[in-house]
Design a protein that fits this description.
Blueprint: H1 4-9, E1 15-17, H2 26-34, E2 39-42, H3 48-61, E3 66-71, H4 77-86, E4 91-95, H5 103-108, E5 112-117, H6 120-128, E6 134-137, E7 143-144, H7 150-160, E8 165-168, H8 174-182, E9 187-190, H9 192-195, H10 204-212, E10 218-221, E11 229-232, H11 235-245, H12 250-257, H13 260-265, H14 290-305
Amino acid sequence: MKTRITELLEIKYPIIQGGMAWVAEHNLAAAVSEAGGLGLIGGANAPGEVVREEIRKAREMTRKPFGVNVMLMSPHADDVARVVVEEGVKVVTTGAGNPEKYLNMWKEAGIKVIPVVASVAMAKRMERIGADAVVAEGMESGGHIGELTTMTLVPQIADAVSVPVIAAGGIADGRGIAAAFMLGAEAVQMGTRFVVAKESTVHENYKQRLIKASDIDSTVTGRSHGHPIRCLRNQMTREYLKLEKEGKSFEELEYLTLGTLRKAVQEGDVKNGTVMAGQIAGMIDREMTCKEMIEEMMEQASRLLGY
Ligand code: TUI
C-alpha cells in the first residue's frame, strides 16, 4: 500500500502512532518504526531537554525514521520546537493549536511538518503556510479533541486540500484503515491501540482498564471551558463533570486534573487519574507487539481494499 504518505515519510506501512502525552516515549516510538510504521515521541508538557533525551534514546533503538509531536499548549513548546531542529528530527506533528510561528524554522531545517487539525479551515490554513500533510482527527479520539467525527471530517478535508490527509480517531484495525482510505485518507494515525502494545511502558492497570473498556465507557470533560478531553469514566471524571455542571471556573477544574494523566499512566491509579482513550477502546481486547498489530491490520486492510 504505497501512498504519498509512505513515500514522504519513507515508511513501509501507512500507519502513524499518535504522539500521546506520557505514553508515546522512546520504547513505543522505536517499536512502531521498527515494525514499519512511523513512531512518534510525544513532547506533551515535557521540557526540551527531556524530549532531547527521548529522541536520542529512540535513535539508539532504531535506524528507521521516527517523529516528534509538539503539543502546542505546552509551556515548553518553544524549546521543544528548537530541540527537534537541533536533533535533526525528520518529521514533526503538532497538536492542540496552531504551529504557524514554527513553520519556517522547521521547513528550513528540512523537517516534514504534519499538523493535527480538527476543521477544514485549519487544514486549508496549514496547507497554505507549507504543511506537508495534515492529520484529520475526529472526536472519537482520546485526549484533546475537536467537534467533528472522523467520518465527516476526513472527506471534507480531503476535498479541501491537495496535500495528503492522514485519518485519526476511532481507528484500531484493518477495517478502520480500509474505511479511512475510502474517505480519502492516505494513511492513518492510531493512539489507543498502541497504548496496549507489549512495548508500551504504561502501567499494567491502565492497559487492563483499556482492555476491559466497553463501547460506551469514554466521556468528555472540559467541554464548557473549550478544553474537551476524552477519557474513560472513573471517580475523577464523575467528580469533574459534577463540578463542571455546577459551573466551577476553569482554574478550579484545571487544578483537579493537574498531574492526573501521569498518575494513571505511571502509577496505575485508574480511579483518580485521567485515563485518556478513544471511543474504539471497547474493541481492543489484548496486548500484542507493535509488529503483530501492524502486520495483522495491514493484511486485513489490504484484503478489504483489494490490494
Ligand atoms: O493534541 C491532541 N490531543 C491531545 S494533546 C493532550 S495533552 C493535554 N493534556 C491535558 C490537557 C490538555 C492537553 C492530550 N491529547 N490532538 C490533536 C488535536 N489538535 N486535536 C484537536 C486539535 C486542534 C484543535 C484546535 C488543532 C488545532 C486547533 O486550532 C485551534 C487554533 O489555534 O486555531
